[in-house]
Write a structure and sequence with these properties.
This protein is α/β, with parallel strands linked by helices and 291 residues long. It is built from ten helices and twelve strands. It binds glutamic acid. The site of glutamic acid (GLU) has 7 residues, from loops.
């Protein structure tokens, strides 16, 4: 099957073994069917993104023997597309401004007897969902900093039952409520991850989204956003996570597992692939079709 895939790292640190595996899954799927593998730089994650990390991503991928479509997307170039999606959702009456700070949310959750909890931690308790239209506009007019959240309950009621498909786990019934009223626009970030990833995967016509199992639950909300924005629904492959010998997940800051460090220690790409548990990419045709 011809697959269009992408590897979408955030340039907030050096790539590690887990990234190598993730890139390989996308690369291999595209290459198997004569499709297209792209790299997308998710660089709107605030000041933690650094150009030197972006440069290192390409160096490391090339060193590993992977290739990718020459057109590289950067999320910082895509802000107008995200803003358009936000306008569309706002036009449907499904977004509300949220004035809460992280601290006030934490305090509110701590004071609740049954704080709402999702697969990724505590959920937004919903304080700003209940504000009146007048209070919202007054506070915005007064210049109070605010984010924008999705009214997930109202959105789900609008679109009804949704499903999505994962290559390992099969057909899934979407459960967006498990993530609550996610933030789609941050106080100082034009688009949060959930929004930008959906907009970009659709715009790049991704057919198979390959990423780690840690993002499995995020897909419930992505599926809902796809329905609201009326974009095609890709298939998914949430792959295993590479763990260290103690069974711990490799966090991005796990410098010891950085591909760069392996290289400095004189290891060859084949050694890295062996650590990741896959066969080194065989030379052959490129993993992209020309545009
Ligand atoms: N930038 C995200 C990450 O590095 C990408 C997630 C995805 O592939 O959807 O975790």
């Amino acid at each position: 099957m011809t697959e269009i895939t992408r590897f979408a790292p955030s340039p907030t640190g050096l790539l590690h073994l887990g990234h190598a595996y993730s890139a390989w899954v996308g690369w291999q799927a595209a290459r198997d069917g004569g499709g297209r593998f792209s790299v997308r730089i998710e660089d709107i994650d605030g000041p933690r993104c650094r150009p030197e990390y972006e440069a290192a991503i390409f160096e490391d991928l090339a060193w590993l023997g992977l290739d990718w479509h020459p057109e590289v997307w950067r999320q910082s170039d895509r802000i107008p597309a995200y803003t358009q999606a936000v306008e569309r959702l706002r036009g449907q009456g499904l977004l509300y401004p949220c004035f809460c700070s992280r601290t006030s949310i934490r305090r509110e959750l701590a004071a609740m007897a049954n704080a709402p909890h999702g697969p990724e931690g505590p959920l937004y308790p919903g304080r700003c969902r209940g504000l009146s239209a007048a209070e919202r506009s007054d506070r915005i007019a007064a210049g109070e900093a605010h984010a924008w959240r999705l009214d997930t309950g109202a959105a789900t009621a609008r679109v009804g039952r949704l499903t999505w498909w994962d290559r390992r786990a099969g057909e899934q019934s979407a459960d967006p409520a498990s993530l609550g009223d996610v933030m789609l626009v941050g106080k100082d970030r034009p688009a949060a991850y959930h929004l930008s990833v959906v907009v970009d995967d659709a715009a790049q016509e991704i057919t198979l989204v390959t990423r780690g199992r840690d993002l499995f639950h995020a897909t419930h909300i992505h599926r809902l956003l796809q329905a609201l924005l009326d974009v095609p629904v890709p298939r998914y492959h949430h792959h295993r996570l590479v763990r260290d010998d103690a069974g711990t997940r490799l966090a991005k800051r796990a410098d010891a597992f950085a591909l760069r460090r392996y290289r400095e220690q004189g290891l060859a790409p084949a050694d890295v692939w062996a650590h990741a548990g896959v066969a080194p990419p065989a030379p052959g045709r490129p993993a992209f079709r020309s545009a």
